[in-house]
Amino acid sequence: MSLYGSFLSDEQFQCSICLDVFTNPSSTPCGHSFCMACISRYWDGSKVCQCPLCKKSFQKRPDLQINRTLREITEQFKSMRGGGGKREKRGGGDGGVQESFFEELKKKLPRPLPKLPKRNHEPAADPTSLATSVPNPSPLAALIPPSGPPPPPPPYCRSGGRRRFTVTGAASGSSIPICEVHHRGILFYCRTDKVCICPDCAFYDHQDHETVSVEQEWIETKVQLSVSEQEIQDMIRQRIRKMEEIKKSVAEVELAVEREMAGSVCLYSELVSTIQRSQAELMEVMEMSRRAAVHQAEMMLRQLELELEELQRRENSLAELAQLDDALEGVKAFPLLSSPPPAKDWSGVSLNTELGTGTIYRSLAAQVESFHKELMMVAEKGFAATLMEPSPVPIQPRMKRVQEYAVDVTLDYNTAHPRLILSEDLKSVRCGERQQMLPDNPERFDRVVCVLGREMITSGKHYWEVEVGGKTDWDLGVARHSNNRKGKIDITPSNGYWFLSLRDKNKYAFRSEPSTDVQMSLTPQKIGVFVDYEKGQVSFYNVDCKLHIYTFNDTFGDTLFPFFSPCTNKSGKNDGPLIITPVCLKE
């Protein structure tokens, strides 16, 4: 068989759609060739034009033209096969035809063909072999098969044949990924472009690049994976440490806030106490000075009055003497009346108007100066940790903390004063105009307009909130269970009552002994009551502003109940109710 008998095959001139030799071949923009009629029918009715081989899509249907060079080569090939008849078997009888075809083919090439590189799987080529003179990269390389035995069919082809494309696409292949351009298995990895490629891609597009097998790249990638995993673990550990550091910082801030609160309360309380003591001393000194001045003035006035009376008597005597007609009597009496009576020299006498307050003011100024120095020191260095030791003013829990001990409080109907009107859900109480006809049981208050809650407090911490907005008078707190509830009651801590009061809309006071007035810059609309039974504390809070108002410190020793008094309605001016509201935790 001729050398050229194994060189050309009619498969090189077959249309992939009709599987026959090209008729009026035309090439798509992606470089693949088909019969003009086949590719036109393939695209007819399709919304998107795709190449049947590489599946490349074209936004606009390409305007195809007949590839005249390929058509001439195809016609030459048909004539060598015997005028385009049936395909003949390759053998020694057609060698001359293919030789003449190859001579015609060489005439159409634009330049002499360089030598092809040897394939590793092929034996050494004969110097006369055409494979050593025609390289694949030539313009017609796709039409000239390599020398040697034909390569095995790709995994996606059926045995002994080529794929047939339909309107719906190619037949399904094996599990190996297929290159969309060359339709061969993707077995290599280009490290230069960082892409996975097939053997044809490696040969045509990545000749000067660093390429390795996918398996080798994966082995080296696994090593990098372990390094990356270690880096990620290090980053995770760093962030965990940072989270712990932040949590620790938050705890330090909490301690610093409590220390600052304790120190500031102690510092300002000391200043307030100093001012209050100084004010009290000042009032006392001024009162003593006033009393001394009044007493001195009274003594001086009394003495002056006595002297004045004596002088007036002498004046009257002289006037009577002047009226006498008896000269002898006049002469005798005049020496006794002419000399003034003994009297005090009042020219240098004056009332002492000094109040004696200068010493107190100077003492207060010295204490304020000492406070100023201490305040400047605190501003620069803050409060020392020793200030966390027990101080005269205990640190009160913050609003959110006490709200965590919220309890569901309801009113006890059996303890309500006959004038009080309770809601059906026992959550609100107001004072009516007249007393109701209610049984006079031992638990009921009959003189004080108040009512107790039903929840007993014998241990632990308890918290509830009461809406007081709009009222002019009210009392809120706790009361001892064993208290007398009949007749007039002295509502003081010593008698088992601990509560905060409002009178005349703006006068707040704590029922201590004596009563303690308090000024509130912000009028509370809702009051929070917190009881710590073990510590003996009853605290009050302005819920809307989240501010601590006051704390009683005592020893209870008995069961406690919530205490509510809307006070009398004052002819409708104070008829609003006290309402027990649900506790809403606030940040």
Description:
This protein has eight helices and 20 strands. It has helices spanning 36-43, 68-80, 95-108, 199-204, 214-322, 327-338, 358-381, 399-403; strands at residues 25-27, 33-35, 49-50, 57-58, 188-190, 195-197, 211-213, 420-422, 428-431, 451-452, 461-467, 474-480, 497-503, 507-510, 516-518, 526-532, 537-542, 547-553, 560-565, 578-581. The strands form five sheets. Strands 8-9-20-11-16-17-18 form a seven-stranded antiparallel β-sheet. A hairpin with a 6-residue loop joins strand 3 (49-50) and strand 4. The protein is elongated.
Key features?
single chain, 587 residues, alpha+beta, 7-stranded antiparallel beta sheet, 6-stranded antiparallel beta sheet, 8 helices, 33% helix, disordered N terminus
Task: Give a short overview.
With 587 residues, the protein is of the alpha+beta class.
Strand and helix map with partners:
Elements: E1 25-27, E2 33-35, H1 36-43, E3 49-50, E4 57-58, H2 68-80, H3 95-108, E5 188-190, E6 195-197, H4 199-204, E7 211-213, H5 214-322, H6 327-338, H7 358-381, H8 399-403, E8 420-422, E9 428-431, E10 451-452, E11 461-467, E12 474-480, E13 497-503, E14 507-510, E15 516-518, E16 526-532, E17 537-542, E18 547-553, E19 560-565, E20 578-581
Antiparallel strand pairs: 1-2, 3-4, 5-6, 5-7, 8-9, 9-20, 10-19, 11-16, 11-20, 12-13, 12-19, 13-14, 14-15, 16-17, 17-18
